[in-house]
Amino acid sequence: MSTTIEAPRSPYSRPPRTRGGVSWEKWGWIYMRASGVVLIVLIFGHLFVNLMIGDGVDALDFAFVGGKLSNPFWQVWDVLMLWLALIHGGNGMRTIVNDYTTRPMTARILKAAILAAVVVLIVLGTLVVFTFDPCPAGSPADLLPSFCPAS
Predict the structure, then answer these.
(1) For 97, what's the count of Cα atoms within 13 Å in the CB-facing half-sphere?
(2) What would the DSSP string read from start to end of 9-48?
(3) What is the largest CA-CA distance in the chain?
(4) Rounded to an integer, what distance in angstroms lies between the CA atom of residue 58 and that of residue 51?
(5) Which structural domains are found in the chain, ordered by start?
(6) N or C: which end of the chain has fewer CB within 10 A?
């Protein structure tokens, strides 16, 4: 019985893919690069508007946040930043799980937990941005901020 050993400097060849379809790892890699570039713009724009324009950090209060979240432009900006950052972070955590877990069941459980956390945070964050009302109707006047019209 003889076995053939390949030459040590022969190029590595992967076995042919038996499953067709989308390469999720490739698209995950592309997403990380694209979302990273967009997040740089979104985050630095967010920091510049919040900290540099006007009175700077002294102007950050409930009225400032209420004013920003009542503007559709800033709602979209903040939701886009939220979604991209959470999916970017979740994809990064998934990559770490893939790299460091050895048992398939452990990897599945960890990835399911990451997915659940990302989905819950995206849903809650999006709801907060689009349903935030600093002056809810029917609230006692003494509990409302000073910028709310008297009801």
Answers:
(1) 19
(2) TSPP-PPPPSS-S--HHHHHHHHHHHHHHHHHHHHHHHHH
(3) 94
(4) 8
(5) 28-133 (1.20.1300.10)
(6) N
Q: Which long-range contacts (CB under 8 A, 24 or more apart) does 58-62 make?
A: 62/134, 62/145
pTM reported for the whole predicted model: 0.76
Six token digits for residue 84: 């991209």
Residue 147 has pLDDT above 80, yes or no: no
**131, two tokens:** 């349903």
- What are the pLDDT digits (tens) for 112-132? 999 999 999 999 999 999 998
Contacts with 63 (C-beta within 8 Å, 6 or more apart), sequence order: 134, 145, 146, 147
The answer to whether the CB of 114 falls within 8 A of the CB of 46 is no
Q: Which amino acid is at 113?
A: A
Question: What are all long-range contacts of 27-31, with beta carbons under 8 Å and residues at least 24 apart?
Answer: 28/91, 28/94, 28/95, 31/87, 31/88, 31/91
CA–CA dist 24, 96 (Å, integer): 15
Note the pLDDT tens digit of each residue in 78-89. 999 999 999 999
